[in-house]
Each structure stands twice: as structure tokens, then as C-alpha cells.
Amino acid sequence: MPEEEVAEEGVLNPLQPEIQDPLLKEIIEENDLQADPSRDPLEQPAPLPDPDEVVDCVVIGTGAGGAPLLARLAMAGLKVVALEAGPWHDPRKDFATDEKAQAFLFWNDERLSAGQDPLAFGRNNSGIGVGGSTLHYTAYTPRAQDDDFYLHRDFGVGVDWPFGYDELEPYYDELEQFLGISGPENYPWGPTRKHKYPLAPLPLNGAAQLMQRGCEQLGIKTSPAANAALSARYYQEGIGWREACQNRGFCQAGCNIGAKASMDVTFLPLAANHGADIRPNSYVTEIERDASGAVTGVVYEQNGITLRQKCRNLFLCAGAIETPRLLLLNELALTSGQVGRNFTAHTGVQVWGTFPEDVRPYKGIPGALISEDTHRPKDADFVGGYLLQSIGVMPVTFASQAARARKLWGQAGRDYMRNYNHIAGINILGDCLPHESNYMELAEEKDARGVAKPRIHFTAQENEKRMTAHAENIMRQIWEAAGATDIWAFPRYAHTIGTARMGLSGDDAVVNADGRAFDVPNLYICDNSVFPSALSVNPALTIMALSLRTADKFLEKAR
């Protein structure tokens, strides 16, 4: 019998027994990375770019506006670079099931709020990191309806989009299939779909079941909502398998298994697989131009180093605050006088009630049930419309809302929060009209980088007030019919929209129907800043559809 090999004391390289268990291997590897972060590939310093290299396109921002077009351009064979102000995240390690631990997902730089209804920023409407706001969005993906694009045609106010639903429909179709949208067999509102949702709807959580019960008694039609979270394991072309949603409910704290279709697990891997260079921690400070006014490159700060990237075309996809901020800072695309103007925010009042049933509002997809019966209400005394949606909520978020709206803190707050597991909510997502008093500007005050802070003015106008009152009345009726007590409303506005709108003429718009700036030939803007109107639905799916359309229009012109 051969002698056993024994690791003797003092031997420099003792034999290590091979670990067979794959789970144990993974745990050991994770512990090693925590002990020595330099071994983590996400922590490796990127090589400095060649300052003289000219790439075809630079894309600023990697959220719903930047990521889809980045993938499209890379797949067309163009040399593309994406600059993201935030870091790469590893969802399995970084996205804890904990609200407070996930504050790093939000754009936490100070933004100044002004007006009679100053807006809250951060978790409400903006994000940072590779994937942008999609890292913490709730994955609610209803389509805009065809009349959403024609407020002026139908009501004589606001402005119409330079194209209609038919232009975005093929992109809605493509996105729903690519992302793996979970939705109902037959969606009862809007144009009939050419393709069914690829996956069945996610389970209705407690709030959704109670909303469904109340709506049935009032004759309000409901449907399981469309969500960009997988109800079953799904194969994504060009990427591979993604796992099904576990209904943990922490969508706004980042999905740690990749079931939610955030850009970091969908379009960005696809872009990288086709050669896109994605550079995290890259905060753009300057946009360079030549004598003719065309963009020639950008200057950005990465990990304390100032770098320059030359380019033939620039795609600005930084959102409705950072996009106009960059334009104003660089005095770019200002001919129309509309940069920063036409700011809108979705009306989003929430109504909460307490139920005898065990609701557990932290469980399941937050927005599980929808109704668009209020899309154009017959008894409306306002322009446009809104949708109703059930809402789940995390405890810290809910406690802060109760404190702000009901002045509950200290012992009174603790007593009320004992009802948390019996709380359910409904909210709306409604249109908002542009108004001259609602805009974004640069403040004299500087941020930590020495850059002028954005100041956003917002005052709800008569139309928004009437819509909110109409919706609150209906939601209170729904909760009363469902058996709620202690019903109360939390006034709220969601999403940042407008500030660089598209249109048919450079006289009253910043970009044309293809997203190209009227007065800068190689500058394109693609995010929620180009929306001519807010639309009466959540914006994420429409931003992605615009992104793909903008890329296709650019490629057609390039060819």
C-alpha cells in the first residue's frame, strides 16, 4: 500500500485537497474575493484609452435610453464606447434584500428643487451604475396607447409627438419578446397586439388581489400587469438563460438573480459581446466641438483621472436632468431656447388602506395589477388620463411616507407601523402638461465635483390637480369596496420627463423625430428628456423603443 502524501509542517507548498462540492467552491471563491478584492474582475483597473483614437460613437448613459442603442450600434459593426457615471455591480453580491443597504443605486448627488410642489429625487426617479435607473425600476412595462401621442390633436393643449404609435409598435413587439415580458393572454386596452406576451403573468400579490376585489364590485375592469420580470426561466438570444422571478419584492433594491430585465443583464451584455467598450465610473464634464459646431469628443473623469475620448457621433442618454445639464454646461443645442424647458412629472398620488387580511406588502412584484379604464374617463374635467396600479412597498419607504403625509413619528409612528403587514396601496400614473413655470436650470451652487447643480422648478397646474382629485376619489372607492379602513392619500409625482423635447422644427424643439439635434449634426439625444408629452403610462418600455428606433434611423442615414 503506497504511503499517503502528508503536508508536513514547514513545507512551502502543501498539497491542497480538491473541493468537489460546487456550492462550497463558490462560497470559498467569494470569501477569497472579499479578502482580496483585487482578484475580482469587476475591480480591475481598465487600461487607459488611446487619446488619439476616434471611435464611431460615444454613448453617455447606460440606462433604458443608452443600452438598447449601444447594443444595436455594436451589432452593426460600429466601434462604440459607453460612459457611465456609476460603477459595475455584481447583482449576486451587491443587491441585498435590504432597503437602506441599496441606497447606492440611486443618483444621490444633490439636486435643488423649487416651485410650489418641489420634487423629491433619488429613489423616486433616477439611478446610477451600469444599467442606470433600470437597476431599481419596478419593471412595470405597459405600452403607451395610440392617442397618448396626440394630446394637442385631441384636446388642443400641449404638443403632439412627431410620430405616432405605429412607429413604435414594432419596437414594442421586439422588446417584449427579447426581454421576456410576463403579461396576460389578452390585454383588454389599446391596439390588439400582433404577438402575445412570451410569458404568463406573475402571481398577484396581496395588494393586487384586494384591488381586484374592490374593482369588481365597482365594475372597473382589471388585468394582470405587464412586467419585465420573468415568470419562468427564459432564454435570451445572444445572452443565455435568465432565472425566473422569486417574488422577493425588492425590485427597487436591485434584482440579485437577473430575473428583472434591467439593462445590466440584457442589452449591455449583448453590446459587450459585440465589441462595445463600456467604461464605468466615467463622469462626463465637457463636450468638445470643432469650428463648424460638430461634436469631436468628450472629456470625462474616471477614478480621479481626466480622460478624453474622440468620436464621430455622440449619443446623450443621461436622463431628463443630466442631459439638459450637460447641454447647458457646454452651451450646446441651445438655438431653440427649449433646453431645460417643458419639464413634466407623472401625477402619481397613492392611496393606502388597512385590511383585516394578512397582506405582506413586501412580497411579490410591486405592480401586479393594472386598470386602464381611466385612460380617458368620460366624466373627466381634465386633459389626458391615467392608469391605476396596485403597489407593493418596503417598510422603510412606507414609514417615511406615513411620517411625511400623516405627521406620524415617535411612538405614534411605531404604533402605526405595527399594521404594516395589513397595508395595501393603489397609485396612478397620469399625464402632465408642460408649463412655462416648470423647467430645469443651472444653479450658482456647485456640487462636490465643482459643477453647477441642477435646479428643477415644478408647480402642479390645474390639470394635474383635477386629475389627482379624480383619481384619489376612485381609489378611495376601490378600497372602501374591498373592506379597507383608515384610508389616506400620499401626494406624489414620479419620473422626470421633458427638458429636450423632440419635434418637427428647431423653433420649438431640441431634436427632430429621429433624435438628432437640430443645430448639431452629429449629436443625438435618447432618453425621457425628448418626450414631447409625459404619456399616461410608465416610461421605461417607451424609452427603450425610442432607443432602438433612434439607432435604426442613425444606421439608415449612415448607410
Automatic annotation (TrEMBL):
Domain Glucose-methanol-choline oxidoreductase N-terminal, chain residue ranges per copy: 127-347
Pfam families: GMC_oxred_C, GMC_oxred_N
Record-stated family: Belongs to the GMC oxidoreductase family.
Species per Swiss-Prot/TrEMBL record: Hymenobacter aerilatus
Keyword Cell division part of the UniProt annotation: no
Domain Glucose-methanol-choline oxidoreductase C-terminal: residue ranges: 434-546
Phylogenetic placement of the source organism: Bacteria, Pseudomonadati, Bacteroidota, Cytophagia, Cytophagales
Region (Disordered) residue spans: 31-50
Key words of the record: FAD, Flavoprotein, Oxidoreductase
Superkingdom field: Bacteria
Keyword Chaperone: no
GO MF annotation terms: flavin adenine dinucleotide binding; oxidoreductase activity, acting on CH-OH group of donors
Protein name: GMC family oxidoreductase
InterPro entries per the UniProt record, alphabetical: FAD/NAD-bd_sf, GMC_OxRdtase_N, GMC_OxRtase_C
